[in-house]
Design brief:
Elements lengths: L2 H9 L3 H5 L7 H15 L7 H17 L2 H75 L12 E8 L8 H8 L5 E5 L9 E8 L2 H9 L14 H5 L3 E6 L15 H14 L1
Antiparallel strand pairs: 1-3, 1-4, 2-3
Subcellular location: Cytoplasm; Nucleus
Keywords: Chaperone, Coiled coil, Cytoplasm, Nucleus
Protein name: J domain-containing protein
Length: 274
């Protein structure tokens, strides 16, 4: 390859632009363009360093564009470059469309999530209002006393299970199973003998209703499949019974001194015994 042509291609110089002529110019137009540029940048007309460099470039442009073989090579390079640029532009446009579609999809997803959150919030408010209404109706039906002293009485129950493996029940597993009845404030284990058929622990519920529900439950009918998947679900099958610890159920019988939780708990026990 001609060295001048190689330098032009390496530097990506537009020879037609240097001479100020279009790409389909005839040889006469190219020579005319050269003469016009030479009048400006010839060393006899312009002695600046920049003019000297420019004059060398237009001289190279005349040599390449004035030689059919070199001009064909240069024009082929120009066409190939233009095709690459057009293809790159098409790819960029496609990427831009894809990016815009992705942004639109993300915005639509965000709007849907916000709408779902709004609906979930409205449903939560509605459930809360329904719960309040149901409590008012239950309170009216049970004729609960109008109490002013609402300090709940903690209650302790004794939970028993079949002993298959020492230490098979942990505090976390007991809490996971028994929290369905009410809030638990404390769990502790006595010293169980490995040889005992049954082991047990003590559970302190924060209010009386939790203890009542725990003692009224028929543990033989609990379905592990309806519980969270894990060890606690399978352990439910080992539970046998739950009973009050006598010292924890010394209830006040004056309805004016009872909390609602105590009154409801005592009512449930009376219904169970009848």
């Amino acid at each position: 390859m001609d060295q001048d042509l190689k330098q032009v291609l390496d530097r990506d110089i537009d020879l037609y632009d240097l001479l100020g002529v279009p790409e389909d110019s005839q040889d006469s137009d190219i020579r005319r363009g050269y003469r016009q540029q030479a009048l400006i940048y010839h060393p006899d007309k312009n002695d600046t360093p920049q003019a000297n460099v420019r004059f060398q470039q237009i001289s190279t442009a005349l040599k390449i564009l004035g030689t059919p073989e070199l001009r064909n090579s240069y024009d082929s390079y120009k066409r190939l470059k233009r095709q690459r640029n057009e293809k790159r532009s098409q790819l960029n446009e496609r990427d831009k469309r894809f990016e815009n579609e992705l942004v639109k999809a993300e915005e639509e997803l965000l709007r849907n999530l916000k709408s779902q959150q709004s609906n979930a919030y409205k449903e939560a408010i509605l459930r809360e209002e329904n719960l309040k209404l149901r409590r008012r109706r239950e309170s009216k039906y049970l004729n609960l006393p109008n109490v002013t002293h609402q300090v709940e009485s903690p209650v302790v129950v004794k939970l028993k299970w079949k002993n298959l493996i020492q230490g098979i029940f942990t505090e976390d597993e007991i809490r996971d199973i028994m929290s369905r009845f009410g809030r638990i404030s404390k769990i502790w284990f006595p010293e169980n003998n490995d040889s005992d058929t049954y082991h047990y622990c003590f559970i302190q519920f924060e209010d009386y209703i939790g203890g009542v529900l725990a003692t009224l439950c028929d543990y033989s009918k609990l379905n592990p499949e309806n519980d969270p998947v894990g060890k606690s679900g399978s352990l439910i099958k080992l539970l046998r019974s739950c009973r009050f610890v006598e010292s924890s159920i010394n209830l006040k019988w004056d309805r004016r001194e009872m909390s609602q939780a105590e009154y409801i708990g005592r009512t449930l026990l009376n219904l169970q015994s009848n």
